[in-house]
User: Fold UTP--glucose-1-phosphate uridylyltransferase from Komagataella pastoris.
Amino acid sequence: MSAYQSPKKHVKTQSAYAFDNTTTSIAASQMRNVLNTLVDSVHAADEHTRERFENEMDTFFGLFRRYLADKASGSTLDWDKINSPTKEEVVKYQDLKSVENTDNLSKLAVLKLNGGLGTSMGCVGPKSVIEVREGQSFLDLSVRQIEYLNRTFDTDVPLLLMNSFNTDDDTHHLIQKYQGHRIRIRTFNQSRYPRIFKDSLLPVPQSYDDSLEAWYPPGHGDLFESLVASGELDVLLQQGKEILFVSNGDNLGATVDTKILNHMIETGAEYIMELTDKTRADVKGGTLISYDGQVRLLEIAQVPKEHVEEFKSIKKFTNFNTNNLWINLKAIKRLVESDSIKVEIIPNNKTIRVGSQEVNVVQLETAVGAAIRHFRNAHGVVVSRSRFLPVKTCSDLLLVKSDLFYLEHGSLKIDPARFGAAPLIKLGSHFKKVKDFQERIPHMPKILELDHLTVTGNVQFGKGVQLRGTVIIVCSDGQRIDIPNGSILENVVVTGNLTILEH
Assistant:
């Protein structure tokens, strides 16, 4: 892959150079010239592809200029203006009207954010195809949920998948198997933006056809622009759809809830964010605040260092964003067409290989939750923890595969015999990849009575193992612990090198 080098005349690193109007003007001018060159490099592609790419580069340039302006102004939130949201800005799920009305399902479409790869769990391809329960993937379960909804209530809720250039081809191949199902699946791609060198602030790619390593999908805040640019938003509106339920593809708790849907339509809200109560495992999650009389999402990256511990406090900020969002489609169209959605930019630093060198790059990303302040009558609804069941690690995978849950029409339901919150599970690096996890835990242990599990080192689980209370298993380097078939471990610490356990 060819790439721009970083000559000394270019804008220096953020740490070494004070951003001011002059430097931002120079950086913006250089960026505009290079983006024009990138657009000119689209030769073989059809006219539609060229037009879409040109629009993406224009949108990226707008994002880049805002990034420079933010750096130059040093604009940050005034901590003294941050207040807890009012009772109108955050309401409790149990306070919503219990109206048995499923007619509004005809106005609903469901969107899953499907741009992520399973690389963090050692998988190749879209994360949505990882097997999570009884041989079924994230995508399989989503399809089953909506198909059951359509069949039960004789409705037509479509499923949209927002792919990235990393997942699009594989996803198109995978969804072929659902052709005979009672569900319409539509896909569209989010934008493809150029990574920029951290030192020169110039794009890594030199042409449209440069290696995929030079590009990145710009976070789920790109949803609004991409939904409009793809034409999918207009299609939904023509079908009479009004509300879009958005969630992460790996959140198994994000199912359609008619109570929230009806509440949204009755109140005329253009945006509803589902929140759930914080635990000590969620202290970094974004939360809703009231700021200058406006509801906003506060992320930990926006918090001044001296207030980070205060932000993490479960007492002051009691709940966090699940990224289950209900958004009015006409409002999206209005705001995108008027270019009114300006959300906080999240600089994501990465290291990539360019030729024989490793270089530092920056990805300018945005989050869909941050757009809440642009919508009318937007507010949060505090929901049960059962609606937030993400699978980010193999520790999460153990939880959702266990006897703690059972599967019902594609939805995971917690066993009513369970008392209290879900157990805290921490698996060490030997279990990081799905392949290693499956080899070390070929049979899921029973964890209905488990409170806490920590496992580190070379540990192998047998069949029919039961874990209760607090269980800690620590295997020393170079050794191995085997948990035999039928073991019952309750409130124990296991260390050393064992192949036989009393049980």
Summary: The domain at 79-387 is CATH 3.90.550.10 (Spore Coat Polysaccharide Biosynthesis Protein SpsA; Chain A).
